[in-house]
Amino acid sequence: MTSFRGRILAGALTLVATAALAACGSKTTDAASGTGVSADVSGDTVKVGLLNSLSGTMAISEVTVRDSIMLAVEEINAAGGVLGKKIQPVSEDGASDWPTFAEKAEKLISQDRVAAVFGCWTSASRKAVKPVFERNKALLFYPVQYEGLEQSPYIFYTGATTNQQIVPGLDYLKAQGKKSVYLVGSDYVFPRTANKIIKAYAEANGMTVLGEDYAPLGSTEFGTIVNKVRSSKADAVFNTLNGDSNVAFFKEYTSAGLTAESMPVVSVSIAEEEVKGIGTQYLTGQLTAWNYYQTTPGAANEKFVAAYKAKYGAEKPTSDPMEAAYVAVHLWKAMVEKAGSFDVEQVRAAAGGITFEAPEGTVTVDGPTQHIAKTARIGRIGADGLITEVWNSGQPITPDPYLKSYPWASGLS
Amino acid sequence: MSTVTAPTGRTPDPAAGGRRRNLLPGAGPARAAAGFALGAALLFAVAPLALSDFRLSLLAKYLCLAMVAIGIGIAWGRGGMLTLGQGVFFGLGGYAMAMHLKLADAGPGELPDFMQLYGQLDELPWWWRPFASPWFALPATVLLPMAVAFGLGSLVFRRKVRGAYFAILSQALAMAMVILLVGQQGTTGGTNGLTDIQGFFGYALTDPVNQRMVYFVIAGTLLALLLLARQLIQSRYGELLVAVRDGEERVRFLGYDPASVKLVAYVVAAGMAGLAGALFVPAVGIISPAMIGIVPSIEFVIGVAVGGRATLLGPVLGAVAVAWAKTALSERFPGGWTYLQGLMFVLVVAFLPGGLAALVGLGRQRGDDPDRRRWWRRRRRQVPAGVGTTVPVEGAGTPEATDGAGLAGARTGVTA
Asked: Closest partner residue to A107 among B61, B195, B331, by Cβ?
């Protein structure tokens, strides 16, 4: 038993030593101690990080974003690079797992010393990496539409915030004379927050929300929800389902006898890539709200679509998040060139007002929010799987992540 | 709950020395102490000097996973309970810690950032309030998981739920916990979890020096848990636990209550997972449902299986090796690392059923030990009179007839 006591003593000593070492660190009350890791720009190349899920449930969507970023990098390198340096992409797999995203972000910043990171899809992954970028004072370009209510000094948001996608979608439904909606979404942060905004909008605009249902991510059981939707006799459905669930939902929806004519569905997470997977027979005539479609007119988009198909195959569609990721790389290049430096603070200072002739049309970086002004577009899914625009906002909408300019949204944040 | 009715006094049997297993090479106390010192030297001296801040913080994360693995090693390796839901306890510990740190970050009287965003709450929910006090939150990281494990274990083990049924039940619990957390976005952070944790009891986690401190706390805790586990495994209770694993009904006939024996191991494993979760939070800065659901729960078990579940060090080595391989492979081959990881698991299961521990000779599987039979015979002679004397032959008798004595030999299945 003495050896046992000896071991207990050793353990106690370990803990005491641990506590002693613990006293060495700095307190939170000390001056901000975050040490920025500066990018390595000593050679004739500059590294950028690509942080996307290449495995796991999100891979099917995020791989297309990675491909799109690679296309932009190639284009920039072919045109001489950024400030005379060729871009060297470093790809990491976030594996659809949020702590892994944080780990890989840290790796890209501290080990690879990249000048900027492009990627993340889900809000959860963005929330996981946000402290990492803020702590290291490094830059993330986030290319996906999201639920707003965020404004990090070290993130540029090149996808739509709510007032550039969801609010215009609701405006469109209202203009079409729809008085009641039913909300269906996956059970995570984006749908729940989006639906909160939709309910506030509906209340202020004389619309009724007849029901609100959430299915777990990846759920394929929609019999009950579709029955509830049908018996609610709503004028329209607002759909924030993500991924595979859409396949099951729309099959069930169609077999329940509901059509785009009788009860249109506005989806905010179904782009060209997903339309292919769900099957056009279930989707023809349904509506989507985005900022870009493969069919968006303009020379910039023709060039983008042609380049993408040439690189990855003629059957590959282009979609909104892919376009936003492509735009992000070009915007970063423009910021760096305006700043004349890869230094993060100088790049941020130079960002406001930068414009780019994007495939979706002209986009402008809004300095204070670090979001970009984008044109909202409502589209109708065609039998060929492509989405054609039926309405747009006419001009780019200034980003308002906290919906401060909307009186009805005052209670939301 | 009744306690284990272990007979008092050790058997002064000369063969008793054979019960000390090869938990470490040589297995003697001296060798164990040497091994412990080597581990301490590696963790406290070599690793901090050899690794960059980033790699050291990854090691801190791996060591947290290793703590869960020690518990699984006890519950599964020694106790035969396939705990496929340890994520629940890891999550309880992690959330308890993260809730306290979020409240500390927010300051007194303020709401955590995500509650203001998603919850539209005017005041803190009642069940958050106690976590403002470190004197509640810190013990809760360990005691809360233990209490849940105690509640669940009492129900499950008394009803003789085991094997695949127990594994499925643990999985269901993990699933239920994830659904609960995701659904209550306003008060739990939903899928995002609790992120952006800035301070750890007054120390800024953004400071690399403090990250190092967190690493040392974690390394120290891991060593302490290893000592605890070694003590537990080598005790009389440890023997009984293995006996329950290998022949639950026989132990019952001997007058012990297998449910209590299993319950203790399950509760200890839950406490270890809770502590690991609590330390994971300052090391990684996030706890989310993604870390506690079915997939991470299975990954914990994979680490233990790869390392060698019935040994003391096997689970630790396995957990660290699997986590390290995941990082290393995914950095080298971001597109195809999952295939390599799968291949690795297949190879280990096919060619190293005893795990990595068998490879380096860290211990033999309990079940292969011929000594055990002799131990059984010895112990059977010591059964107190009156208990186990009317034992029916296994498989015979009705539940009604045997229930009174707690010797339901016939009820080997699940009685829900």
From this structure: B331
Contact by Cβ (8 Å): B402, B408: yes
Predicted pLDDT at B78: 94
A33 neighbors B207 (Cβ within 8 angstroms): yes
Looking at residue B45, the DSSP 8-state letter turns out to be I
From the candidates A2, A26, A27, A28, which should be mutated to test the interface with B, based on the most B CB atoms within 10 A?
A28
d(CA B282, CA B198): 9
**Is the confidence at residue B111, as pLDDT, over 90?**
no
CA–CA distances in Å: residue A377 to residues A69, A179, A374, A410, B377: 23, 21, 9, 25, 80
The pTM of this model reads 0.83
Does the CA dihedral B235-B236-B241-B246 come out positive or negative? Answer: positive
Domains contained in chain A, CATH given: 45-160+301-373 (3.40.50.2300), 163-296+377-409 (3.40.50.2300)
Distance CA A256, CA A242 (A): 21
| Residue of chain B whose Cα is closest to the Cα of A98 | B290
Best residue of A15, A55, A125 to probe chain B, by most B CBs closer than 10 Å: A55
State the average pLDDT over residues A116-121: 96
Nearest by CB: A26 against B118, B197, B209: B209
The residue of chain B nearest to residue A105, with distances taken between CA atoms, is B54
Closest residue in A to B176 (Cα) is A216
Determine whether the interchain pair B182/A216 forms a contact, defined as Cβ–Cβ distance below 8 Å: yes
Q: Which of A18, A188, A216 faces B217 most closely, judged by CB atoms? A: A18
pLDDT of B131-179, one tens digit each? 999 999 999 999 999 999 999 999 999 888 888 899 999 999 999 999 8
Residue A219 — pLDDT band, cuts 50, 70, 90? confident
Number of neighbouring beta carbons within 10 Å of residue A229 = 26
Nearest of B376, B349, B290 to residue B90 by alpha carbon: B290
Please count the CA atoms within 13 angstroms of the CA of A407 that sit on its side-chain side: 3
Query: Residue B283, SS3?
Result: helix
Q: What is the Cα–Cα distance from A398 to A404, expressed in whole angstroms?
A: 12
Contact B227 A411 (CB under 8 A): no
Question: Which pLDDT does position B337 carry in this prediction?
Answer: 87
Report residue B163 as tokens: 């094997």
Please answer yes or no on whether A93 and B335 come within 8 Å at the CB atom: yes
Q: In chain A, which residues have their Cβ closer than 8 Å to the Cβ of B291?
A: 98-99
Strands A355-358 vs A208-215: parallel, antiparallel or unpaired: unpaired
> Which residues does B158 contact at the CB level (< 8 Å), separation at least 6?
B259
Tokens of A54: 């290449």
Q: Are B313 and B227 in contact (CB under 8 A)?
A: no
Q: Do B204 and A25 touch (CB under 8 A)?
A: yes
